[in-house]
Amino acid sequence: MTHRLLSYQRDRYVPTEDLSLPFLDDIGGTLRGYRIFTACKTTHGKIFRLDDHLDRLYYSAAALYMKPPLTRTALKELLYEVAAKNLELTDSSTDLVLDVIFSGGLQGNTFQQSGKPAHLYVAVQELEPPPPELYKTGVVLATYPHQRMCADVKLLNYIGAVLAHQTVAPLKHAYDVVFVSPDDAATLLEGSTFTVFFVTDSGEILTHPLDGKILDSVTRRVVLELLAGRADMKVRETPVTLAMAKSASEAFLASTTRNVLPVVKIDDIQIGQGRPGKITQSVMELFEAYLNSY
């Protein structure tokens, strides 16, 4: 069932279908692409890991010399209010996605700061998770040579993913794409909107480190926290190459809207037995248990 939800536009609530980002007083955002965001979700009536999202959002603003529209405390209170208003409009089984956007702050048509804060938008939609069968069968990823600009900042720029989905994704009949570093044409960085993990034959879980070449994913943080200190599942942050992926026994991806989703093939490389493995299933169960207790 689709509910009539409320989004937040600068200083007021509007129906989500009426949300707009005005043009003339935000040329920095509309024409210059001077925008950042974070995508939060609700679970059991709470905003999941909101502090982590705010950490990254305010880090992104500082990295781009953008003046936030609100203090962190004020924004946190507003987001609680936005979530509460919308959860009242839905049934108890509905989870939401809140895209929190900082837009603009430049002087007119220039690239100089205006001294004014960015505009604030909170776009609220119902969460649409992947079909349940994908968690049983796993998904196929296609590789695409791309390094996101300011990779540790969550920009509103997905041109690499858009191009990949017009080219390699349909060619490989892929669910989504994983970016390969253009520097060496070998290192697997991150997905279009997710982090990737690989499991070695010895059971070690590998994922790319936070070296400025990937985003500090909130779901990535959660996965690493859940696995920290476990004797049965060791994790190491290290670059993973295509050659290493060929010998991986399992793989999975992690993101806000997908949680943990098995990966069974990358391009023409079958991962392990071509089906979700035991370690991946264990990580999925750990994550689901954490969500249920949140």
UniProtKB/TrEMBL annotation:
Presence of the UniProt keyword Repressor in the record: no
Keywords from the UniProt entry: Pyridoxal phosphate
Alphabetized GO MF terms: branched-chain-amino-acid transaminase activity
Obligatory cofactor(s): pyridoxal 5'-phosphate
Reaction equation(s) it catalyzes: L-valine + 2-oxoglutarate = 3-methyl-2-oxobutanoate + L-glutamate; L-leucine + 2-oxoglutarate = 4-methyl-2-oxopentanoate + L-glutamate; L-isoleucine + 2-oxoglutarate = (S)-3-methyl-2-oxopentanoate + L-glutamate
Keyword Acetylation attached: no
Enzyme Commission designation: 2.6.1.42
Any GO BP annotation: amino acid biosynthetic process
Family, as annotated: Belongs to the class-IV pyridoxal-phosphate-dependent aminotransferase family.
Name of the protein: branched-chain-amino-acid transaminase
Annotated organism of origin: Desulfomonile tiedjei
Phylogenetic placement of the source organism: Bacteria, Pseudomonadati, Thermodesulfobacteriota, Desulfomonilia, Desulfomonilales
